[in-house]
Amino acid sequence: MRYLVNSEEMKRCDGNTINEFGMPSLVLMERAALAVYEELVSGGFDLSRVLVVCGSGNNGGDGFAIARLLHLSGKRVDVLFAGKPESLTEETQIQKKICENYGVNVGSNLNISEYTSIVDALFGVGLSRNIEGRYAALIGDINRSGIPVLSVDIPSGISADSGHVMGTAVKAAKTVTFAFEKIGHILYPGSEYCGELKLCAIGIDDRGFMGQVPGAFTWEESDIPKLLPERKAYSNKGTYGRGLLAAGSRDMAGAACLAGKAAYKTGTGLVRIYSEDCNRQILQTLLPEAVLTSYRKGEEGAALADALQWADACAVGPGLSVSSEKLEILQTIIRSGDIPAVLDADALNLLSVHMELLEGHRQPLILTPHIGEMARLTGIKKEELILDLPGYCHDFARKNNVVCVLKDARTVVSDGKSIYINTSGNDGMAAGGSGDVLCGLILGLLAQGIPPFRAATAGVYLHGLAGDDARRRCGARGMLAGDIAESVGAVMSWDTEDGRASQAK
Ligand SMILES: NC(=O)C1=CN([C@@H]2O[C@H](COP(=O)(O)OP(=O)(O)OC[C@H]3O[C@@H](n4cnc5c(N)ncnc54)[C@H](O)[C@@H]3O)[C@@H](O)[C@H]2O)[C@@H](O)CC1
Ligand SMILES: Nc1ncnc2c1ncn2[C@@H]1O[C@H](COP(=O)(O)OP(=O)(O)O)[C@@H](O)[C@H]1O
Ligand SMILES: [K+]
């Protein structure tokens, strides 16, 4: 698990490290500068002529220290001081003075095109408003120059809190950040502006939060074993849960099949698909392992109560279609009481015009909207939602007492308390049916007893890893949702020797 911090959390952690543990600010700055220096000299950048662009905040202080380290190692380096002298922080003033004492050329009007590499130390996590005027012009010049840029901490102009471009932003080839990744490094478009992201330790760690931990986190590879449901040699299919999937309709059997397959691939003991009669043959052919309960059009609901009694967890929505009968199915599931349920796709479309169904619900609910579905659920425009995915996801989850999985290239999950931001997956997953696979994956984890928020976050992370595995096998363009479902088995065996070996190939 890695924390993803916003600017306020980072500043609090910096401040505690300095004021409570007594670590001098200049020592942290020196370590930050050394980390960037190491990155610069380790290759990848042509250091024949380096320009370090410094602002007056502590990001600029890092920049002055980097310039001095480069100068002392014999590199030709100049500093473009773009900040206001009267705004220099105490540390940055000291770093600037040291540079000048060593004879580093510090100018305010240098010709950018003469340089082979640029170090961007204009603004870091202290960026507090949109960039305008001469700063905006300078960033425009840097981006137009085509000269490779290394950004210090975060590309200048990217909000550490949201990943948004604050007016304009530096496009970096590489970004070296310190102590923790910021939310703005992970969310788009910030993630693209960072180029390659390198995280470096500088002597600040989570003790610096002094018990007030950050609100956002992401899973990483070392977490996989603890995210997977347990397997036992002494077991049978009853040991691994029963998942009920209400999905599929005429012409939409595929969604039920993909979700059902993904649920089985997580290791679930039994998956029952509750679907229209017309899908019977196709589902039996495509997923013979599934138990089927089918209903004729107009007779929905009859066998659903029994199926719900039987199940440990339920998912509803993939390919369900929208009609008054389907609304009854959704209603029966939400009113049924206590088993955890995933509401996806058409279940969300039905819900968006019947939000009263969520009032006073008793069982844990996981809702998995993509941005279009979230717009219908909340009445908030898509363009507005993308400005703050974590905030809207968190507020929706808290207000409705659900776990919200807000799907996008960086999916965000919240239970109204914590925020999870996903870092696995790839653009090969941007194709029809990927969401059905996610729905089934979460259902499988729930059926095996994983608690809802853990099942949702682990499901999203493992889904992305399955997408990464599918891309390795089929390529981003060639992979289909079925390939992601196929790869779920590989990521679910990561905790075994066989699984790790096959991933390493
Ligand atoms: N000791 C520490 O606290 C450490 C800080 N570090 C560096 O310090 C950075 C944070 O430093 P600061 O908090 O001083 O902030 P920054 O250096 O990011 O920038 C703040 C300055 O920019 C101005 N500013 C903000 N938005 C602006 C805009 N749109 N247009 C014009 N001016 C704008 C502010 O008024 C302020 O003067 C980190 O990103 C990191 O690079 C590192 O050296 C590690 C240790
Ligand atoms: N560019 C991308 N990078 C990573 N994941 C992606 C990307 N595009 C889509 N995905 C993932 O694929 C899934 C798509 O789900 P959804 O939009 O419901 O598709 P569908 O309805 O076709 O199944 C989501 O889990 C989403 O996070
Ligand atoms: K920067």
From TrEMBL:
Q: Work out whether the entry's keyword set contains Nuclease.
A: no
Task: Name the source organism.
Answer: Murimonas intestini
One GO term (biological process): nicotinamide nucleotide metabolic process
- Quote the InterPro entries the UniProt record gives: CARKD, Nnr, Ribokinase-like, YjeF_N_dom, YjeF_N_dom_sf
Classification lineage: Bacteria, Bacillati, Bacillota, Clostridia, Lachnospirales
Q: Where does (6S)-NADPHX bind?
A: 58-62, 124-130, 135, 153, 255, 319, 370, 436
- Domain annotation YjeF C-terminal: ranges: 220-495
Protein family per UniProt:
In the N-terminal section; belongs to the NnrE/AIBP family.
Query: YjeF N-terminal domain location, by residue?
Result: 10-210
Keyword list (alphabetical) reads:
ATP-binding, Isomerase, Lyase, Metal-binding, Multifunctional enzyme, NAD, NADP, Nucleotide-binding, Potassium
Where does the signal sequence lie? none
User: Under which name does UniProt file this protein?
Assistant: Bifunctional NAD(P)H-hydrate repair enzyme
**Can you state the subunit structure given in the record?**
Homotetramer.
User: What exactly does this protein do?
Assistant: Bifunctional enzyme that catalyzes the epimerization of the S- and R-forms of NAD(P)HX and the dehydration of the S-form of NAD(P)HX at the expense of ADP, which is converted to AMP. This allows the repair of both epimers of NAD(P)HX, a damaged form of NAD(P)H that is a result of enzymatic or heat-dependent hydration.
